[in-house]
Amino acid sequence: GCEAIRRMMQVGLRPAVVRLYDEFDTVMARSGAEKGSDADSLIKMITGKVEGSGALPWIKRQALQLVLSRPELTNRMVDEFAPRISTDGCLCIVGFEGDRRLVEAQAKLGHEELMRSGARDLGEEPGWHWFRHRYSVSYKQSKIFTSGAFVDTMEVAATWDKLMDLYEGVRKAISPFAFVMAHFSHAYPEGCSIYFSFAGNAAQPTQARKAYERLWQEALAAATRAGGTISHHHGVGRSKAGYMTEEHGNSIRLLKSLKATFDPQGIMNPGVLGIP
Hints:
- The protein is of the alpha+beta class and 276 residues long.
- A hairpin with a 3-residue loop joins strand 4 (179-187) and strand 5.
- The termini are far apart.
- It has twelve helices and five strands.
């Protein structure tokens, strides 16, 4: 799938949307197709939300908490069984927009490139389903925190030659601390972004916070080791600031010099990007 996207971009096609889900994210996306979004399915799974009351919902919630408290085992099970469940492979959504003549030409060439890579055409509905529900998850993550678990996303990026190393490295780093899945999006001729979604749980809030903080440390270090960048479009801010020097090395001095020149009094977002 990544190879097909790379070829589309490097022959000059410019799709407005490209999303390639990994195996388990594909399962979640497909399972939510009739009831909402993959975010709906993920949140119901994490919060243990079920209809009705009594022993069965309680058992499901307890089982879910047990699953999330053993993330490394859960991720190994996903590695083993998700490819078998997702028998159609990984879901890829590609969309073009603009002048009809250009869209039709690009869509035809893009379709040919995907088919050449062994894809199977699922029609327009997966794309429209994504379009209808593309903002759903932002309004529903609070339910996961309310349930006592944690959830977040992490976007990183790399050039094509390092992309799969980045995916494997960051996923491996997150796995001991949280359940994790990912999709590839925001593609360019030079490379692509990977958007990880993860959720975890612990017996006590303090333990969950420690796991959450350690997860970020390990995942960002893994991204740097793989030759990726620690942020693609969400920005570095304060949470990732400590890894700017590790990623950029001595060139961070240039950024500090620019900051000192344009903001000599240090009043523009002090601390962001790890710069006073």
